[in-house]
Amino acid sequence: MLPAKQRFSVLLSSIFILLNLFLMHCYAAISNITSSNPLSQNEILISPAQVFELGFFHPDNSTNQYVGTWYKNIAPRTVVWVANREKPVIDSMASLKIGSDGNMKLVDGNEVILWSNNVYVQSNGSVAVLSDNGNFVLQDGLSGQQLWQSFEHPVNTLLPGASIGYDLERGERRVLSSWKSNSDPSRGDFVIEIVPRSPPQAFIWNGSVPY
User: Fold this and answer.
1) Degrees, nearest 5: CA angle 52-112-135
2) Which residues contact 78 (CB under 8 A, 6 or more apart)?
3) Are the C-beta atoms of 25 and 11 separated by less than 8 Å?
4) Mapped to the 3 state alphabet, what secondary structure does the chain carry?
5) Pairing mode, if any, of strands 39-40 and 95-98?
6) 102 burial class (0-12, 13-18, 19+ CB within 10 angstroms)?
7) Looking at residue 3, what is its pLDDT?
8) Nearest-angstrom CA–CA distance, 135 and 152
9) Residue 11: what pLDDT?
10) How far is CA 118 from the centre of its chain?
């Protein structure tokens, strides 16, 4: 007979496998988002090697929904990026789609835009895909040219390949900022940024005060 600790470990593994099978039946997996194939609330966008997933989720103790990226095979769910952290979804008809201007748009049941990546796109033939490194990418459907990526817009987690700092060409400031709480992914008090000094310096801020 197995020792108690080993039996408990086997039990946890079994529960995790059963939970994954249950979720697979509840959610339909898709490989990309196009103008004709939006992501609905009962679907999951999966990276090619099934390392990451992107979809709608509820934070702990919250009825609000957000679109985010998390590791597929890590329990409990570890969310590493959130699209609409300041504007939660509060209805059951929301979807993430490619709009007529080629941009990704998260819209509610009344077609009100809750989030968009807002870049210049030449046509609406763009495609959104999730990479195995966790990067959510909008690319041209014909040339494959990258038009936008979540790695240039981190939230509270810096995955390998992502960056923080200043994009002088675009005038963008890229920082890491904490969630307000475990149930609210909107921007919290703590921020990590690279200050453009000579040499550059990294700071952690608690509000406006260095931490």
Assistant:
1) 20
2) 70, 71
3) no
4) CCCHHHHHHHHHHHHHHHHHHHHHHHCEEECCEECCECEECCEEEECCCCCEEEEEECCCCCCCEEEEEEECCCCCCCEEEECCCCCCECCCCCEEEECCCCCEEEECCCCCEEEECCCCCCCCCEEEEECCCCCEEEEECCCCCEEEEHHHCCCCCCCCCCCCEEECCCCEEECEEEEEECCEEEEEEEEEEEECCCCCEEEEEECCEEC
5) antiparallel
6) buried
7) 63
8) 9
9) 52
10) 16
> Looking at residue 166, what is its pLDDT?
82
- Token pair recorded at residue 210: 């260095």
Burial class of 128 by CB neighbour count within 10 A (0 to 12, 13 to 18, 19+): buried
* pLDDT mean values, one per 10 residues, the chain (211 residues): 54 48 62 95 97 97 96 94 97 94 95 94 88 97 92 96 85 91 96 85 88 82
Which of 71, 79, 122, 86 lies closest to 101, judged by CA? 122
